[in-house]
Amino acid sequence: MGTIEISDHGRIRVVAIDRPERRNSVDRETADALYEAFGAFDRDESADIAILTGKGGTFCAGADLKALSQGAGGNRVEEGGVDTPAPMGVSRLMLTKPVIAAIEGHAVAGGLELALWCDLRVVAENAVMGVFCRRFGVPLIDLGTIRLPRLIGHSRAMDLILTGRPVDAQEALAMGLANRVAAPRQALETALQLAQEIAAFPQACMRNDRRSAIGQWDLDWDAAIRNETRIGLATIGSGETLSGATRFAGGEGRHGAFGRSDGNT
To answer: Which stretches of the chain score pLDDT less than 70?
Structure first.
């Protein structure tokens, strides 16, 4: 996995694309490394949240078109369903745990699609996002045409998909493409703080609510209700709900206090 760097910060796993000389563009080796790294994260009971980022001040400039143009071969492009490898590696993976993107510099083309794959996006003030592959005839093939409309709405998605124009951090925040804006060079630190907040909550409940929210896109109204109820009952059966109710009855969370699941703020 020489094209990525993996580090653990308590129960937070950080996966960083490490090809700054290619603006963290993804070749076949990097795509396979990302796929393996996030599959391992999802199976690892010692890690609750993952962060995807890039080294050297760039998140990801997309697929490595330079390598392709030089005859070095292309990324995996084939039909496949959920959890099969994709051109950018991970975009078809359906993980059971959240991933946060920490974005500095450019997250464009396939790099934007990687950011869309994440549950949340923390962008530095200097970040630039966009469908830059528009100008080169490279399709969105890592679920960009699916996730972008679902995330920011059809009209805004069409604007970005058809024009390929750049989007800065503040516009990304306004349209819902970004969830947090950080100072330059602070995206990873801000994402780590956010991940620690999420990791402090009861995990079965959080993961199950996330699972229901993602799953409802594939269901009609009645089926979504049944699915939410089934997953909610599994959470209650885990014992987390009773434990939380007991903490509340003991005084935790009074007057709207919002703190960690261990009672510390």
So the answer is: 1, 70-76, 254-265
pLDDT in the model for residue 75: 67
Question: Residue 13 pairs with which residues in a beta bridge?
Answer: 8, 50
Place of tokens 């995990």: 203
Closest C-alpha to 115, from 46, 21, 170, 179: 179
Angle between helices 144-152 and 110-117 (to 10 degrees): 60
Residue 149's alpha-carbon distances to 26, 30, 153, 155, 234, in angstroms, are 24, 27, 5, 8, 31
Q: What distance in Å separates the CA atoms of residue 163 and residue 62, rounded to the nearest whole number? A: 17
Dist. CA 97–CA 91, nearest whole Å:
14
Q: Cα(38)–Cα(28) distance, rounded to whole angstroms?
A: 16
The per-residue pLDDT for range 61-106, each reduced to its tens digit, is 999 988 777 655 556 677 777 888 999 999 999 999 999 999 999 9
Q: CA 184 from chain center: how many Å? A: 20
pLDDT at site 256: 63
